[in-house]
């Protein structure tokens, strides 16, 4: 099976893990955990695709404790509204999307190097600072409530 077919099949298996949270607002801490997972999966795929393994290892080592804490927050988020399988499906979907992006974007490795540069910027010692300027992963946007001033986000169904 080719890499393209494998990625497409895996993506189909993980298309809607967030559906059970549709319409719910999430707080900034959960949103940061979702964004951190998105960044980490993106950089992991870039490390393998663009031969940037040393940069990925540097990222993981630099933010090890914060990545672990963020991942615990992410698992808690998914357990509150679903199952740990939803957590795994979400992370798999993120990696698959990055893989598909790498196949279709001729500038993928150039963009990945920019993402590594942003993540490893010596002026950013906190993972929250690194993900603060990143877009929310697909299916999330700011809540249109008073909570939005406190960094809350709304999850949309992928259906």
Would you mind describing this structure in some detail?
- By secondary structure, this protein is mainly alpha-helical.
- The chain has one domain (about 25-155).
- It is built from seven helices and three strands; from the N terminus they run H-E-H-H-H-H-H-H-E-E.
- The protein has helices spanning about 5-15, 30-50, 55-60, 65-80, 85-105, 110-120, 125-130, and strands at about 25, 140, 155.
- The chain has a three-stranded antiparallel sheet with strand order 1-3-2.
- Helix 2 (about 30-50) crosses helix 4.
- The longest helix is centred in the first third of the chain and has 22 residues, at about 30-50.
- It is globular and about 35 Å long.
- It starts with a helix and ends with a strand.
Tell me, briefly, the overall form: globular
State the low-pLDDT regions, or none: 1-22, 144-150
Number of self-contained structural domains:
1
Strand content: 5-15%
């Amino acid at each position: 099976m080719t890499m393209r077919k494998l990625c497409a099949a895996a993506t189909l298996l993980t298309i809607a893990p967030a559906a059970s949270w549709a319409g719910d607002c999430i707080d900034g801490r959960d949103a940061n955990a979702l964004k951190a997972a998105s960044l980490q999966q993106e950089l992991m795929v870039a490390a393998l695709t663009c031969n940037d393994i040393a940069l990925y290892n540097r990222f993981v080592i630099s933010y090890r404790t914060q990545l672990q804490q963020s991942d615990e927050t992410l698992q808690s988020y998914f357990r509150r509204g679903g199952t740990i399988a939803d957590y795994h499906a979400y992370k798999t979907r993120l990696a698959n999307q990055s893989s598909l992006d790498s196949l279709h974007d001729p500038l993928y490795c150039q963009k990945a190097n920019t993402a590594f540069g942003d993540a490893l910027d010596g002026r950013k010692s906190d993972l929250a600072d690194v993900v603060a300027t990143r877009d929310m992963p697909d299916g999330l946007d700011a809540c249109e409530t008073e909570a939005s001033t406190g960094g809350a986000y709304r999850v949309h169904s992928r259906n």
